[in-house]
């Protein structure tokens, strides 16, 4: 969508040893000078009547000071200019002059006059994180900066500088491609990083040398079976995000959102294997073969699965194939749909005195028949979460009622849990057939059956059974 495209292109200006001009006398100019003092730029301040604060900054840092009113020739050899007088007319004149000589300009607090925006900066030199809202919300940018500041270790720059000192050696010793990439992945995540970030640079250097010496160009491949959760990308675990950045190949299902797949490395190969109900583009045996083939080629493979891999995700078959082939693997859990759907609907899956057990069930077994095995548990008061059951809802309801479950047992159904287009339906067991009478429901549906479903957030819910239309 056009509204989701950036109106700016993020970039970092090279300013070391180059002149940046700040025009202004007061607090706005002082703020920009303090920001620029975090760089190696040559700072020129054009100010005829500087405040005490600005005068102190100029003197303490031996900055260039032009003490007359702004003139166009003050921009000589400048690469950037900040118009920071606080007066719209004066700042507009500075911007006009800068544009006339081809110098990008920023008018403080006047977005319409800005050729570039000043980001909120997290400085871990040489690492820097710049945040912009394109002028829409400077306070939001500052809040985001505070969060990122808390996440990034103070000594991150030391780790980056240590990495730079090993770059030439790594380029000489390791062939391009996966071996070199894996070295750097281990460098920035393992013992080397731990030592550097704790201030033990000598120890970090020794560990890095050992890592480089022992790196194996013929390293075997590896497979991660990663649960992506029910759809919302912010429910992806931190481990899953980190592993996606290590993948050479991403094998994904149809239900995995593009926003999650995009978290992988840009140069990682994407393999779409379908696996959506009724629309399979690859058989399970073919998927198993893909995982084994790619890992045997020495690649790091991430197999993305909707929800949690171990709950109706056929992870067992993939793990068996990998074990048989001698391929190392790891399972990364995800938020399963039952948890996400219950959370959005405000339903406690277990509750003291009401439901002390929870059953995960699927509407179909391997042969396509409705599963009856959990009916007895439902009779005992368990909450039953039924996956992939919309098309057989009538059979599920009939089986449970035949087994003796009260027809007035509460039921909730959630379509597209956690996604913007999610919908929430409520009713009783005898109404459950209504969910597959609806021609306006085609997304994944999770059904919750049991006493706790009565606590569903009914203010946002629709009836399971659609209202009948009156004949004309």
Secondary-structure content class? alpha/beta
What is the terminal separation in angstroms?
41 Å
What's the multimeric state?
single chain
Shape: globular
Write down how many β-strands occur, each being a DSSP E stretch of 2 or more residues. Answer: 18
Give the count of helical stretches.
15
In the predicted model, the low-confidence regions spanning at least 5 consecutive residues are none
The total number of structural domains is 4
The average pLDDT value, as a whole number, equals 87
The appropriate CATH architecture of the largest domain is: 2-Layer Sandwich
- Beta-strand portion reads 15-25%
Query: Looking across the biggest beta sheet, what order are the strands in?
Result: 13-14-17-15-16-18
The CATH class of the largest domain: Alpha Beta
The major beta sheet can be summarized as: 6 strands, mixed
